[in-house]
């Protein structure tokens, strides 16, 4: 993870920043799945209540060059600016950027029934729809490749760490354990 590339979405009168970032991450997801890549991580350096206007790609130089050479940004070039590949500053710290899923009432019921804690009827009564935990994290809206449904992918940036943790990234560029440089 010694190189990075920033992709900044430009203001657009027809699409909001979160919509453009969602489209960008969706395209990246499809390409990382196609390449079967597990060594490219992402972060969002302007994260706050939303993920901001910049998607930062992290990896080694060769992997980033290979990704950018695929033309995966085709169709979004008019909506974003791609930086040169740059070396990560030596003063960078680290953090995990991961997906967080909320526990839905449906999943709670299903688990309670499977574990034998509740019958199907009791689960419907005792686990109400409004028990679903609402996450207050920034998210992107993507189309699920497996179900075709639109889903919210909540993204959490962990606390800042002094040392890097190596590991693999999923096809969204996220990991539960591996860190990306933060600066």
Radius of gyration: 19 Å
Average residue-wise pLDDT:
90
Main sheet properties: 5 strands, antiparallel
Number of strands: 9
Which assembly state applies to the chains in this document? single chain
> Quick one: CATH class of the domain at 3-97 and 157-182?
Alpha Beta
Poorly predicted runs of 5 or more residues: none
Percent helix, as a range, is 10-25%
State the separation between the terminal residues, measured CA to CA. Answer: 13 Å
Structural class: alpha+beta
**Overall morphology:** globular
- Assigned CATH superfamily of the domain at 3-97 and 157-182: CRISPR-associated endoribonuclease Cas6/Csy4
Helical stretch tally: 4
CATH architecture of the domain at 3-97 and 157-182: 2-Layer Sandwich
Strand content: 25-35%
Sequence of secondary-structure elements: EHEEHEEEHHEEE
Which fold name corresponds to the CATH topology of the domain at 3-97 and 157-182?
A: Alpha-Beta Plaits
Structure overview:
The chain is of the alpha+beta class and 183 residues long. It has a domain at 3-97 and 157-182: Alpha-Beta Plaits, CATH 3.30.70. It is built from 4 helices and 9 strands; from the N terminus they run βαββαβββααβββ. The protein has helices at 17-35, 61-69, 105-114, 120-126; strands at 3-9, 41-43, 54-59, 80-82, 86-87, 93-100, 139-143, 150-157, 179-182. The strands form 2 sheets. Strands 1, 2, 3, 4 and 5 form a 5-stranded antiparallel sheet that branches. A 4-stranded antiparallel sheet has the order 7-8-6-9. It starts with a strand and ends with a strand.
